[in-house]
Amino acid sequence: MKAPKYKVISDYIKGQITNGTWPVGSRLPSQRELAKQFEVNRSTVVTALDELAADGLIEGKLGMGTVVVNNTWTLMSANSPVNWNEQVQLGAHQASLATVQAINLAESDENLIQLSKGELSKDLFPLEEMKAVIQKVAQDLTPFGYEDPKGNPALREAISDYLKPKGIDSPPTSILVVSGALQALHLISIGLLERESTVFLENPSYLYSLSTFQSAGMKLQGIPMDDEGMLPEMIKASQHSGRSVLYCHPTFQNPTGTLMSEKRRQELLQLAENIQLPIIEDDVYGDLWLDSPPPPPIKSYDRHGNVLYVGSLSKSLNPGLRIGWIAGPEAVIDRLSDLKMQTDYGSSSLSQRAAAEWLSSGLYEEYLFKVRKQLKERRNTALAALNKHLSRWADWSEPAGGFFIWVKMKPEISLADLYRRALSNGVLINPGRIYTTQKLQHFRLSYANAPIDDIVKGIAVLELLIKDC
Amino acid sequence: MKAPKYKVISDYIKGQITNGTWPVGSRLPSQRELAKQFEVNRSTVVTALDELAADGLIEGKLGMGTVVVNNTWTLMSANSPVNWNEQVQLGAHQASLATVQAINLAESDENLIQLSKGELSKDLFPLEEMKAVIQKVAQDLTPFGYEDPKGNPALREAISDYLKPKGIDSPPTSILVVSGALQALHLISIGLLERESTVFLENPSYLYSLSTFQSAGMKLQGIPMDDEGMLPEMIKASQHSGRSVLYCHPTFQNPTGTLMSEKRRQELLQLAENIQLPIIEDDVYGDLWLDSPPPPPIKSYDRHGNVLYVGSLSKSLNPGLRIGWIAGPEAVIDRLSDLKMQTDYGSSSLSQRAAAEWLSSGLYEEYLFKVRKQLKERRNTALAALNKHLSRWADWSEPAGGFFIWVKMKPEISLADLYRRALSNGVLINPGRIYTTQKLQHFRLSYANAPIDDIVKGIAVLELLIKDC
Question: B362, B397, B421 — which closes off a domain?
């Protein structure tokens, strides 16, 4: 039996509302439009709308036509009660966050030349090795369930061994497996730091483009850098209330690519010890050195438990595994693992097993050897293209590792303008202002993601756009 | 060259502090004990301690001996500034949370008979199928990276198809992949609900044993149940401020095993629509029916977007995959996926691929057929053992699915006592009071986890303990 025509219409409208296609507050098409769409008389449309109104789903509103009025969850999400973004919606930062969202969206546009994305190119994906690792996981499989609160024991053992050559002596009990560095920062911010506390960090820093700390009610206090890294004396100069923390990214800093010198690392740790300032050390790019190995992590000098060390396979190997780690004093790791259990009951067993296999089999080291070579070629290609196309209008320094070149444009060039025009010409760059609270003449150029020829093409497009002005 | 003896001692002590073994505030062994341990003179120990004191690491305190005084992160975690547990540390609930922590610990003790654990027995782990699935993932592998914010498209497609026979029509765009039901609740609580809002829920409910909602500043308001499920009129009776949400677990409720009737489901939804009360429907046990399929989920009757539906593979298949989902209005799913990205950048690609393979290949349905048969045998064995051993002292109803029998002991038996004595006799049960704010004469008995013979043994031990009194 066929449903009556008015029923077809009311079901269609209900479907649109239920799916969220027409959220609460949205206006329905006019009766005339609906009549045309369903090839019925207007009276049939009216019958359908009357039924929906009786359900409390829609209402005729004066001067607005018919409006969706009930869809409880949509209502809740639209009114977005939560303070989650409270801090980040304030003032100047709002504008840059809108840019961040636009960039995030543009980064999944496969038609663009990606000079923005901080993710290794699919061309560098170690397909055969990854297949072999997964097959090994299948072969060795034993029944699994929830993992230990701190993570799979074999993986923590492998991470502990992997950290040793870096000078970090963390037993497996002092290591927490997390789903990447972002989750590490999320757990630290909700579990260890007080609201209203201050986070010192490099300025610029990619943390300005996230809302991790701000969402937890903390303030970011940028510290200037020179070419050896952040300046410890500027931290001393800042008001230090005793409820602060230092976030730093000493090796191939994002976005500037700065490599902190060994001396500076030690000075920073010394300062932190003197004023009892805890350090979060982010070392997600450390394995991606291109010329020579970087100085040891700050954590390697830490004798007083001042440093929480954060690492990850997301940048160097693959973000899809969602495997990172925190190494620190055992009591702190205990607390963070408790929080991790409260938020997601631990990371995927399959990913943890695969990561353990990558690290303990030696495959990861072999793979790094190859990936460094290819990244180096990419970096050199990008630098050559910059030299050829942009040297009249820009300066930059050569990064010794990581993914990014921090390009400073001459003052006469508007970065906002360049970003917009590049985008409409198929090239995505990251304007520097999303990484800071100030105006900057920089953009961040990633040589990691686009096909290598596209990097050159993209930079050539930038030259044309500048010449065009 | 060998290190001087005092250095060996000071390095050892530093190591213990750095590892968190000796957190700040803890007392060092006496000089005499250290001298004995390292077979040195006390003067050598004094030299070592002097060096550590100069580092600011330890201090002699009057009447307390030598104490660890500096280890910044440990200090932060010990002072635990955060309100994360603010609500749950209040009053009566604190006692039951201490019990929850003790139980969590005991659940990983392999020497105990686990009549507590809500996790399928390793005996039921589908090892060959899981290996085959992982091998298929390896075979079909293409380069992967960060997944879509809502999750791997093939998996969302598979979940959408899987939900259809349940009467839930959610397109892949209205589905968010999460790392289990707990993360779903965490995201909803931090992303959609206001602090101070009220969560109506079944009383008792396993949510009382977690701190998900309380940590986000919400109040739990228990609603009594009869054998058809929670009583809608009790919600009406409660003060409803308009900032409330209803959490319910209609199918094989944890801990009572109650199966909500079809009529009750519709009444509850009708009420929620009338008073604009959004519903979170937890359906993690729905696939584990033992006698006949349960009524359709509440979500299947939902035409106004009132229901967020939460499902998972953790109970029915395996918790190590860390794969669950939320289905709801698209605008709400958009918001939750944004939050998910902010906390962990999505779930593991490997797990998502494996889950998609399980669901779309038909393997999951085949496996369910087997697991239901085995669970049914377990349930019947447990019921027979209860009849044989405990019928003089207890009542219970027969669950039609899920993992648990909710056993009510006669008033003369002290549950706290029984729990403690069972534990010291190698049997772990879950006293009912961790699932409620009241005193209860119940315990939750899981027939899912222990080897089937141990279930009978464990119940026999309970009889002996009761007779002993």
Answer: B362
The Cα B38–Cα B8 span in angstroms is 9
Would you say residue B134 lies in a domain? Answer: no
> Residues A273, A419: one domain?
no
Per-block mean pLDDT, blocks of 10 residues, chain B (469 long): 80 76 80 91 91 78 76 58 35 57 83 95 96 98 93 98 97 96 91 84 92 82 95 79 84 98 96 87 98 97 89 97 94 86 92 98 97 98 98 96 97 93 95 88 97 98 93
Domain count, chain A: 3
- The size of chain A, in residues, is 469
**Which of A72, A84, A303 is closest, CB to CB, to B339?**
A84
CATH number of the domain within which B192 lies: 3.40.640.10
Partner residues linked to A324 by β-bridges:
A178, A312
Q: Which of A130, A179, A331 sits opposite B77 (nearest CB)?
A: A331
Q: A233 and A294 in one domain?
A: yes
Q: How far is the C-alpha of A140 from the C-alpha of A438, rounded, in Å?
A: 53
Query: Is A237 in the same domain as A351?
Result: yes
Assembly ipTM: 0.84
A309 in Cβ contact with A281 (< 8 Å):
yes
Give the nearest chain A residue to B211 (CA atoms).
A342
Selecting from B73, B314, B330 the residue whose C-beta is nearest the C-beta of A306 gives B73
Q: How many CB atoms lie within 10 A of CB B292?
A: 7
How would you list the strands of the sheet with A324-327, edge to edge?
A: A175-178, A324-327, A307-312, A279-282, A244-248, A198-202, A219-223
Cβ distance of A134 and B134 shorter than 8 Å: yes
CATH of the domain at A17: 1.10.10.10
Q: Are the Cβ atoms of A125 and B144 closer than 8 angstroms? A: yes
Q: Which residues of B touch A169 (CB under 8 A)?
A: 15
- Whether residues A350 and A391 share a domain: the answer is no
Identify whether residues B223 and B357 lie together within a single domain: yes
The answer to whether the CB atoms of A347 and B21 lie below 8 A apart is: no
- Yes or no: say if A300 and A166 are a contact pair by the CB < 8 Å rule: yes
Per the CB < 8 Å rule, is B82 touching A318? no
Query: How many angstroms separate the CA atoms of B25 and B12, rounded?
Result: 18
**Spatial CA neighbour of B255 closest among B375, B432, B416, B411:** B432
By the 10 Å C-beta count (0-12 exposed, 13-18 middle, 19+ buried), A154 is classed as middle
Say yes or no for a CB contact (<8 Å) between B273 and A332.
no
Across the strands, what pairs with B196?
Answer: none
Tokens of B65: 């001996």
Tell me the residue range of the domain where A17 lies: 5-79
